[in-house]
Structure formats: C-alpha cells, structure tokens
Design a protein that fits this description.
By secondary structure, the protein is an alpha+beta fold. Helices cover 24% and strands 32% of the residues. It has two helices and five strands. The strands form two sheets. It has a three-stranded antiparallel beta sheet, covered by helices on one side.
C-alpha cells in the first residue's frame, strides 16, 4: 500500500485526517498513530468504520510490512 497525497488516511501531529471521498468501498485503509494501528473502511452504505489495534507486536509487524496487513491481522485475531 503506497501512501502519499492520494492515500485517504494520513496521521500527523494534530491527529488522523481522513479524505472519505477518496475511499473505495470495502477497501481497508490504515495508519499508525500514537503507537496504535487505526483501520478504516467505508461500506456500501457510505458508513465509515474505524477499528483500533493496540497489540504492540501487531503494530510493529504492520509498521514493518504494511502490504501484509490483512495476513498480520488474521494471525492476531486467530490467537485471541
């Protein structure tokens, strides 16, 4: 997942900024803020969903391998 001006989720000093108009329906977006991973997606009804991942091991893995985020999340949800 390449991030830049065209990525709809950005973390900055003031917090997380979302460009929901740029989000593709049912696509997972993420950012790392305050040592947590925040996950966002917009559903077919244009509702925005947000989830927070606090597990430090999961956060480190996602930060190191953002393209593998879905596999990393699956791994940690199976261990719950």
């Amino acid at each position: 997942m390449a991030k830049g001006d065209d990525y709809p989720v950005m973390a900055g000093p003031e917090g997380i900024k979302l460009k929901t108009e740029m989000m593709v329906i049912d696509q997972l977006y993420h950012c790392i803020f305050d040592n947590k991973v925040f996950l966002f997606y917009k559903d077919e009804e244009s509702l925005l969903h947000c989830y927070e991942v606090e597990n430090p091991d999961a956060v480190r893995e996602i930060a190191a391998n953002p393209s593998e985020i879905e596999n990393i999340l699956k791994k940690y949800t199976k261990s719950v």
